[in-house]
Amino acid sequence: MKIGIYGDSFGHAREREESAWYNLLDHDVTNFAHMGANFWYAYRTFLDNHNDFDLNIMFVTNWGRLNIPLLNQPHWPGIQQIDLALNSFDIDQRSKEILTSAHNYLFNVRNDQQEQDSHIALLAQLQQHDLLIIPCFPHDMSLAGDGFSMYDISLIDTVHYGIDKIDKNGKLLTSTWEPGERKELRACHMNNKNNLIFAHKINEWVNGGKFTMERDDFVTPSEPLEFYFERRL
Fold first, then answer.
1. CA–CA separation, 201 vs 107, rounded Å?
2. 61-80, pLDDT tens digit by residue?
3. Do the beta carbons of residue 166 and residue 173 sit within 8 Å?
4. 3-state DSSP helix/strand/coil percent for the chain, to nearest 5?
5. Quick check: 145 and 214 in contact, CB under 8 A?
6. Closest Cα to residue 213, out of 226, 231, 227, 197?
7. What is the arithmetic mean of pLDDT over 223-230?
8. Tens digit of pLDDT for each residue in 83-127?
9. Which of 204, 210, 158, 207 has its CA nearest to residue 185?
10. Is 183 helix (H, G, I), strand (E, B) or coil?
């Protein structure tokens, strides 16, 4: 079975890729997902490639991300990542100019309702196709699904280690690490066991079963914090 994968870093690992769920599947996988990618990029990539595969999986990220093709790294999740790059010592002048323009657009120009409406319209077009759609974030961010998301799986680890704190409903309250301090060493923002569990769920879906995600399906990590996170000082 040939499977195409689209979306953001929940579908693409930069660290420990050998442990990533898509490398644990029993099928032929082509991965079009990219870290930080916006939904338009994932949607466009799906339209260009989905007919080449027996099955397709889309991770729907949050609305409002930027795709900036003028940069070597075109995928930007938001203003926080842009500002961190702008404060970097190794950024070249042209990239600095482009990212400054992106910052100013996000801060002064972007219409959030327009962004959300565009996101919803693309999602409606996507839902006309036969594929598995998985929300990356809660509904107010991904605008897809109404239950457990990939982000909720990710929080299992960060809450376990005391990096993040959540309320009784599982909503993030605060992070104890500052933006930019956290270097991610997990594959697809999940511990190794949860990557394996998630791969098993995808294999079951490929074989004709129903895909579901619930909090009790996943486990806390057994490794020390330093195995999955590095704190930048």
1. 40
2. 999 999 999 999 999 999 99
3. yes
4. 40, 15, 40
5. no
6. 197
7. 96
8. 989 988 789 999 999 999 999 999 999 999 999 999 999 999 999
9. 158
10. strand
- Both tokens of residue 20? 């990533």
Q: Round to whole Å and give the CA distance between 123 and 100.
A: 30
Residue 66, H or E segment = strand 66-67
**Structure-token pair, residue 128:** 């006309």
Q: Which residues, 6 or more positions from 33, have their beta carbon under 8 angstroms from its beta carbon?
A: 5, 6, 7, 8, 9, 10, 11, 12, 42, 59
Go through 114-127 and write b for each residue having 16 or more CB atoms within 10 A of its CB, e for each that does not.
Answer: ebeeebeebbeebe
Domain-by-domain residue ranges, the chain? Answer: 2-64+110-231
Looking at domain 2-64+110-231, its CATH class is alpha beta
Share above pLDDT 90 across residues of the chain, in percent, rounded to a whole number: 81
Determine which helix (DSSP H) or strand (DSSP E) holds 60, and give its type and residue range. Answer: strand 55-60
Q: What pTM does this model have?
A: 0.94
pLDDT surpasses 80 at 169:
no
Count of all residues that appear for the chain in the document: 233
The dihedral through the CA atoms of 158, 137, 8, 21 has a sign that is positive
